[in-house]
Amino acid sequence: MASQRPGPNLNRIATSLGVSVATVSNALSGKGRVSDALIERIRAHAAELGYVPSQAGRALRTGRSGVLGLVLPDIANPLFPKIAQAIEYAASAAGYGVLIADSRGDITAQTEAINRLVERGVDGMVVVPRRATRISAASCPVAVIDTASTPGNTVAADHWQGGKEIAAHLAGLGHKQILIIGNNHESNVQNDRAGGIRAGLQPGMRSETLWIERLENETGAGCRLGLADKARQGFTAFAALSDLQALRALTELQQEGISVPADVSVTGFDDLIWSPVVTPSLTTVRMDMDTIAEIAVSALVDRINESGTREGVLVTAETERVPMQLIIRQSSGLANPASKTSEMENL
Amino acid sequence: MASQRPGPNLNRIATSLGVSVATVSNALSGKGRVSDALIERIRAHAAELGYVPSQAGRALRTGRSGVLGLVLPDIANPLFPKIAQAIEYAASAAGYGVLIADSRGDITAQTEAINRLVERGVDGMVVVPRRATRISAASCPVAVIDTASTPGNTVAADHWQGGKEIAAHLAGLGHKQILIIGNNHESNVQNDRAGGIRAGLQPGMRSETLWIERLENETGAGCRLGLADKARQGFTAFAALSDLQALRALTELQQEGISVPADVSVTGFDDLIWSPVVTPSLTTVRMDMDTIAEIAVSALVDRINESGTREGVLVTAETERVPMQLIIRQSSGLANPASKTSEMENL
DNA sequence: GCGCCGCGCTTAATCGTTTAATCAATTGCA
DNA sequence: TGCAATTGATTAAACGATTAAGCGCGGCGC
Lengths: 347, 347
Hints:
The structure is a homodimer of 347-residue chains. By secondary structure, chain A is α/β, with parallel strands linked by helices. Chain A is 42% helix and 14% strand.
């Protein structure tokens, strides 16, 4: 019944070479004491036979599965491709596979998803938590990627600094009134980004913040954000906390006949896939996901190798914040002085 | 050295209850012959101890890992979240985990990614191939999700029918000249979608096709698509083969001062995350990923359970095409008769 | 020359589960 | 009553790897 693994195993290599399995294992792993000549012979023969070690056998013996879990409670997040790609790359470079778990946006199902991973015997996991949820440590090492202000965070982009970059950029272009556009005010990430923007404002500049989810709860999903009004009130820059919101702002403004960047500027965050190809292309801030993933995975791997018992712990990394990089494109430009007048009219 | 698994195992349950491991195993799996009373006792005690079976032990014995691989050579694809989510859900419902593999867009690395999965002992895998690449069957069952016209395809959305839905919708709105906007003419999916649109045109309607990648090779990445010119030539509808291209078209038209949908209509494919929130919201065609994933996974699981030897085979499913659903939003509207005149002028 | 040490390899135990084979005890049937 | 069939459990052998322990054997020091 049980389907036999097709490939050769240590035993086959051993008997075929007239040595013991232990020697073959030692030769391939380079751990025990085997003569160089024999190591050479065994490795050659193993390669010739196309030997691939059985993860199951190894896992059973060592208690390590060689697999990391990736938990993304908010899998619909458009950042997901980048995250998954970066984590998979870093994990695979460290010799680990990546098992994904999703809870379809259901926060309570997050624990269930984590449990599924634990049952599958992952050696550790990377969690990108949904909004403000704190992950309760599972029975294995956990790395959290959220933002530096989150308790228990392992590593993340420096969202605050990213916000300051945006503010400095807009200040340099002469903008005075900035509308910050976020989705959910409970998101640690969005709060840090907004905080960074506010912290980066120069004297004489002011900002207001618009939370879309709050607005939609009153007006209905997909409603207008009323940005044209805001522009008439004197706002010349719309700093969205994610490219998704930036896109929404950009298209709404264009639809209302307001030109970007001639009349107002729009900026985003994350450098999502469409950012370079929309017209005008989006000025945004990119996070270095590859570095973040590498730090998270190596912190995880370090902990796995070090700890004898597989206790559940939030791992920490030396570098907690990875700088974000400002990408200046076409959607941001010099503040239009005409808006100044409309601002004066308004007073 | 080897970290001990923390939880109880069959042996602990067995000794604690004074029975043999085999009986415990039988009681939990319901396979052998165990008295109902004892089954009850064992199950209760196992639950009380919080027993979770070791996947490693089970995998070693049965030769099945209980894990499926998900290969997405084009992981940057914005569809990825939906695909991954749907596959993970279907797999997890069938008792399988999902291991991801990515080749960072490198086609040659696709084989390498597949090999990584095989080495990890996946029981089967789902492959969403990049463009025209044919996947060479690995040493395990493989389900391919691409499009019906791809040889070896297991299941996919009916992209052709989706195209016809778009054509019928635009025809109903009175559009006569349609510009099809695709990215790469080698994509099976995009070709099917374009073919469907053309097949759905009514007498008196005509279409032209613009391949962005071809254009960018001449003009540079991120260049204008020249859609304003096309509009002046009399095209009143722009049918993109993906929402990403639709977004590019929409913003370019808006930037040129052409109003959507008052002047021209824009449609897309895939109902990506931004489609409902841009202004105007995008008319698009949605694929039923959940159904597709479920069919792919169950075809895979059937084959895994049926075949004793783990041969590498492309699996087939009864339902090969899953209908796509037209989502009518604001970006498509009645053909503007004014454009007719400009068309006449053009003649 | 004797004992000791280290090298190179083997032996054997072990991880946790499944499952075929076995066996004692009870039941069924003639 | 005697023999076979069934029930309810046990025993033991895998699966494939890792690794501590053991065992000749040759060389070295004293």
